[in-house]
């Protein structure tokens, strides 16, 4: 049954206008954006399928176009709209980080990282460069790898941090496997980076592992 055949009180758009967006589920909000479904599926059905397939809103918004194009019902127009929404969300979160201390907004850091790299199909290693007040100066993708690993070179990290005039730094990388747990190699790399950056007076404040909707903090685990 098409959404237009539903009672008005159950249609996502009408519910949003009457109750506000906070009262809608993720699938209902996504259905409002999709507007239409595909043959045999309403917009809500398609929205639920997308969220399940990509691991939630963050996974969907951080997934690249190649993966999204495999889903029937997502044409160029919808892909362009989705990219615009994702970029607006990233910019909003980045603006929030730049406006205040990254340490005072740990949830904003997590949200930004989940949205930026949580759904990548390959590993990436990124750095958030911070000033002395821990405000974000810039975010840079330093290295890109394969499905299971990436190579990180401490000398290049130090050069990039100095070029950004960073006083502190937060690292993050994703696990496409979906498991947000640090490996022994992750721990050794973090210690190596921390020691190398300490030589030039740059503090490593945290290292996040992002897997889908999860973001594990080394600092919270006592691994720094």
Describe the structure.
This protein has 224 residues and is α+β, with helices and mostly antiparallel strands. The protein is built from 10 helices and 5 strands; from the N terminus they run αααααααββαβαββα. The chain has helices spanning 12-19, 26-34, 43-54, 57-61, 65-68, 76-99, 106-117, 154-163, 184-198, 218-221; strands spanning 124-130, 136-144, 168-174, 203-211, 214-217. Strands 2-1-3-4-5 form a 5-stranded mixed beta sheet, with helices on both faces. A hairpin with a 5-residue loop joins strand 1 (124-130) and strand 2. Helix 2 packs across helix 3.
In brief, what are we looking at here?
The protein has 224 residues and is α+β, with helices and mostly antiparallel strands. The protein has helices at residues 12-19, 26-34, 43-54, 57-61, 65-68, 76-99, 106-117, 154-163, 184-198, 218-221; strands at residues 124-130, 136-144, 168-174, 203-211, 214-217.
N- and C-termini, Cα separation: 54 Å
Which outline best applies?
Answer: elongated
Strand order of the largest sheet: 2-1-3-4-5
Q: Which spans have pLDDT < 50 for at least 5 consecutive residues?
A: none
Q: Look at the helices and sheets and give the structural class.
A: alpha+beta
């Amino acid at each position: 049954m098409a959404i237009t055949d539903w009672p008005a009180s159950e249609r996502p758009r009408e519910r949003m206008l009457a109750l506000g967006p906070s009262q809608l589920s993720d699938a209902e909000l996504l259905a409002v954006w999709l507007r239409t479904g595909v043959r045999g599926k309403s917009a809500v059905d398609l929205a639920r399928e997308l969220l399940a397939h990509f691991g939630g809103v963050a996974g969907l918004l951080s997934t690249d176009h190649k993966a999204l194009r495999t889903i029937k019902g997502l044409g160029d127009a919808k892909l362009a709209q989705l990219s615009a929404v994702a970029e607006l969300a990233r910019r909003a979160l980045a603006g929030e980080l730049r406006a205040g201390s990254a340490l005072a907004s740990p949830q904003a850091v997590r949200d930004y990282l989940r949205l930026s790299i949580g759904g990548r199909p390959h590993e990436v290693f990124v750095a958030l460069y911070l000033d002395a007040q821990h405000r974000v100066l810039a975010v840079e993708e330093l290295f890109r790898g394969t499905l299971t690993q990436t190579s990180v070179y401490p000398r290049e990290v130090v050069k990039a941090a100095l070029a950004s005039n960073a006083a502190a730094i937060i690292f993050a990388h994703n696990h496409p496997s979906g498991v947000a747990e640090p490996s022994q190699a992750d721990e050794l790399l973090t210690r190596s980076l921390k020691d190398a950056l300490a030589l030039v007076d740059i503090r490593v404040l945290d290292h996040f592992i992002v897997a889908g909707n999860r973001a594990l903090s080394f600092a919270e685990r006592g691994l720094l």
